[in-house]
Amino acid sequence: MSTATLTNLLEFLYGTLTPSNMRWLGEHLIEQAEKSEEIKPYTMEEINAMIEESERDFEAGRCYSTEEVLQMCEAEISQMQIA
Predict the structure, then answer these.
(1) How many structural domains is the chain composed of?
(2) Are 28 and 11 part of one and the same domain?
(3) What are the φ and ψ backbone dihedral angles of 39, each rounded to 5 degrees?
């Protein structure tokens, strides 16, 4: 996002938020920024290991077909509607 866009957003927020809303938003933005910094991308070695594990699971039959997944979803939705 460009600096100009961010500046416009900031000016809009200054004009529309109360001081308590600004503090609340600031706290949540800081919290999210800290969480985002903790996220590290996978290495190619990790990705390849996950692919190999998935292939072993598939070969061993430890997987579901699309139809099975849809049936499980429909059953779960039915249970939620009953509750």
Answers:
(1) 2
(2) yes
(3) -80, 125
Residue-range definition of the domain harbouring residue 32: 3-38
In this prediction, residue 46 carries a pLDDT of 96
34-77 residue pLDDT tens: 888 777 889 999 999 999 999 999 999 999 999 999 999 999 99
**Which residue reads 């070695």 in tokens?**
45
Q: How many CB atoms lie within 10 A of CB 13?
A: 13
Amino acid at 35: K
pTM flag (> 0.85) = no
d(CA 23, CA 35): 18
